[in-house]
């Protein structure tokens, strides 16, 4: 008979004593439980002791988290958090260097526990840490433990970053700016500053002034990957906290220092594989850089702006330079205006008498004008060839340069997500972005020539404009999906994907769709579905058994802390626990926390998850909502909260958990996988019917014959 719900069987250890096996009554006060345990070992003063997990993070057991204790858990009797906090508070003030160092080391370890952290902070422990940093000249092991302890204590949000003294902050910044200092101290200092920057405008300005971009670039050029990562994290924090004007100035300075080329050569193409954290920071850097175009994209052209009118006129003058060299005195004002209107019409403006009207639509706004001017100035030969070539075509077949440029700019903004906020979890960046300055403009130059090429291949007329732009969008999207490493490679691939190739791809996709819509084929699909769904279920469970590395995300920043979760091979227990950076697939024995599948009640996703509700105040990024899920186990108040690293992992985990709960798989990935498997199975089954049309209805069954005399009579044969 199973034990009652409020009773768990556990083991309690103590150094130098025989372990106790007890049945823990969850309704019994924790103080009374401790009294019983201490009495069994004849220990006085039970209030000076506490229980904590023997493995993993060794969290203290409190009234608030005791319900998380599972059957078979191993606990340890240890000094209570208040006693330990008091002891370490005295230890870090010791004159003995060894005692002080050991106390700080223990403090750095215990500060991860919220109960201990609360006790230590309540004793004004942070003040002692401040004084060690501010007054000490040590830059070795003792300082490293001090900074680690400070980082862990601040992680619990009991104290505001704004309460830090200027002396302490400047000392931390000095560690970043020093040359002869241990790398671990610089890493911790960079991490502290990264946490500090988003919390206050004052702190942002202080850090920005003291830790220069040049210094961060120096840290980015080291071979120590962890130090490189922390430097990039602080750089991203500064960029995200800056105002638009400050961000633009910072990006301009970084461009002068060739940061893109450095990242392209030494980070993206380094011998070491790119980690998830660095991939995220490169995505953010790409997004921040592209979003500098947002202001121009959302600004309509002002017909009264002298500067904008001159840019517009420069397009006409560059294209028709020879024709414009005729003496102005030879033409009347009306004749000159008529000539300009004719030239603007040749340029492809729809409103040739007032071309500024074409640029009033925002987006793409002035960004389209900037792209056209960049194309005309940086590739004048290609620009003149485009315009003059189309000027000599028949009116119906000319490709309108200006109209195409405006629409192409809008397409590129949509594909590259210009003006959209950065995701907190995304890692998808384009390697070629970091190999080229003026990436957006250079990409436009390639794609506008692609428009002209595709226009000619389609033998398009003005009525086909939207069709041509749809094909161009398809060409760009399909090529970007291949993740080309340089713009030259992008140019080669996108030009190879000509109109006839696009037609073949579309026709293949359409034929595949038509094949699968025949009535007999649909019936066969339905028969195959249960078997293939079972195959998908098995794959999902296998993925859960292999496990996944999850990252802890707080309301302040993207965390460095990792934890791993995997399903036991018998599909009965979910194992999880904290792991260190670089651990690929920890053995199941090292994951100390467990949830029996039988105790799982339901799966929550998105806004229903408790960890998304907690952070709903302020700007909650939609990407986190899309990747969040929680397992409710035992009683409904207790949840194991996840934020998947990718949408793919989210789909596989939510499907797998639904299978364990005996529910339907609901993710979009299930439908995609099912479609792929059905398509492959159907093609194999219908291989013998190639080029044979399948009727919508089965052929009629013939009537039975009038007699069965044609049957062979075996009785005569036996005689």
From TrEMBL:
One of its GO terms (molecular function) is SH3 domain binding. Residues 307-480 form the ELMO domain. The keyword Flavoprotein does not apply. GO terms for biological process: actin filament organization; apoptotic process; cell motility; phagocytosis. Signal peptide: none annotated. Transmembrane segments: none annotated. Keywords: Apoptosis, Phagocytosis, SH3-binding. It holds the Pfam family ELMO_CED12. Involved in cytoskeletal rearrangements required for phagocytosis of apoptotic cells and cell motility. Acts in association with DOCK1 and CRK. Was initially proposed to be required in complex with DOCK1 to activate Rac Rho small GTPases. May enhance the guanine nucleotide exchange factor (GEF) activity of DOCK1. This is Engulfment and cell motility protein 3 isoform X1. It comes from Pipra filicauda (Wire-tailed manakin). The gene is ELMO3.
């Amino acid at each position: 008979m199973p034990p009652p719900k409020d009773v768990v069987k556990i083991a309690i250890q103590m150094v130098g004593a025989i372990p106790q096996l007890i049945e823990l009554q969850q309704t019994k006060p924790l103080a009374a439980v401790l009294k019983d345990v201490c009495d069994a070992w004849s220990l006085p003063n039970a209030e000076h002791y506490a229980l904590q997990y023997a493995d993993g993070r060794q969290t203290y057991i409190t009234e608030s988290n005791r319900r998380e204790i599972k059957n078979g858990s191993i606990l340890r009797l240890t000094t209570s958090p208040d006693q330990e906090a008091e002891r370490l508070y005295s230890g870090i003030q010791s004159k003995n260097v060894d005692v002080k160092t050991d106390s700080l080391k223990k403090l750095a370890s215990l500060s991860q526990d919220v109960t201990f952290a609360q006790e230590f902070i309540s004793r004004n422990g942070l003040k002692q840490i401040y004084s060690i940093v501010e007054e000490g000249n040590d830059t070795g092991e003792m300082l490293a433990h001090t900074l680690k302890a400070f980082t862990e204590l601040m992680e619990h949000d009991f104290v505001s970053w704004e309460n830090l003294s200027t002396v302490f902050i400047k000392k931390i910044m000095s560690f970043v700016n020093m040359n002869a200092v241990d790398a671990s101290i610089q890493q911790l200092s960079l991490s502290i500053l990264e946490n500090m920057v988003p919390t206050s405008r004052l702190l942002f300005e202080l850090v920005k002034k003291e830790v220069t971009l040049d210094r961060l670039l120096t840290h980015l050029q080291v071979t120590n990957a962890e130090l490189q990562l922390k430097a990039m994290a602080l750089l991203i924090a500064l960029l995200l906290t800056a105002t638009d004007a400050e961000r633009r100035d910072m990006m301009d300075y970084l461009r002068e220092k060739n940061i893109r080329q450095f990242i392209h050569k030494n980070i993206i193409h380094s011998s070491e594989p790119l980690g998830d954290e660095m991939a995220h920071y490169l995505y953010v850097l790409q997004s921040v850089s592209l979003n500098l175009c947002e202001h121009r994209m959302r600004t309509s052209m002002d017909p009264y702006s002298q500067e904008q009118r001159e840019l517009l006129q420069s397009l006409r003058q560059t294209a028709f330079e020879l024709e414009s060299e005729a003496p102005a005195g030879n033409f009347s004002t009306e004749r000159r205006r008529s000539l300009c209107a004719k030239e603007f019409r040749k340029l492809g403006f729809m409103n040739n008498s007032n071309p500024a009207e074409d640029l009033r639509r925002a987006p793409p706004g002035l960004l389209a004008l900037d792209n056209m001017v960049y194309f005309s100035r940086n590739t004048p030969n290609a620009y003149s060839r485009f315009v003059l070539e189309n000027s000599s075509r028949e009116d119906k077949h000319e490709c309108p340069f200006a109209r195409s440029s405006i629409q192409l700019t809008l397409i590129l903004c949509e594909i590259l997500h210009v003006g959209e906020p950065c995701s907190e979890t995304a890692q998808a960046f384009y390697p070629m972005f970091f190999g080229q300055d003026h990436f957006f403009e250079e990409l436009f130059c390639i794609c506008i020539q692609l428009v002209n090429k595709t226009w000619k291949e389609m033998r398009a007329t003005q009525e086909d404009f939207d069709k041509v732009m749809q094909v161009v969008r398809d060409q760009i999207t399909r090529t970007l999906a291949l993740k080309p490493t340089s713009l030259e490679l992008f140019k080669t691939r996108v030009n190879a994907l000509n109109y006839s190739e696009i037609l073949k791809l579309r026709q293949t996709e359409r034929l595949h769709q038509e094949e699968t819509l025949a009535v007999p084929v649909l019936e066969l699909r339905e028969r195959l579905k249960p078997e293939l769904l079972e195959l998908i279920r098995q794959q999902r469970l296998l993925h859960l058994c292999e496990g996944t590395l999850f990252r802890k995300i707080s309301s302040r920043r993207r965390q460095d802390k990792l934890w791993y979760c995997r399903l036991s091979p018998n599909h009965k227990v979910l194992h999880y626990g904290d792991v260190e950076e670089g651990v690929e697939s920890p053995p199941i024995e090292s994951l100390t926390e467990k949830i029996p599948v039988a105790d799982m009640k339901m799966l929550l996703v998105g806004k229903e998850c408790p960890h998304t509700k907690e952070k709903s105040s302020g700007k909650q990024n939609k990407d986190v909502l899309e990747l969040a899920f929680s397992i409710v186990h035992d009683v409904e108040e207790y949840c194991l909260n996840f934020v998947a690293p990718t949408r793919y992992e989210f789909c596989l985990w939510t499907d797998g958990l639904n299978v364990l709960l005996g529910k339907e798989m609901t993710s979009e990935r299930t439908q995609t996988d099912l479609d792929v498997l059905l398509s492959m199975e159907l093609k194999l089954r219908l291989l013998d019917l190639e080029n044979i049309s399948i009727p919508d209805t089965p052929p009629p069954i013939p009537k039975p014959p009038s007699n069965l005399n044609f049957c062979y009579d075996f009785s005569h044969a036996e005689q």
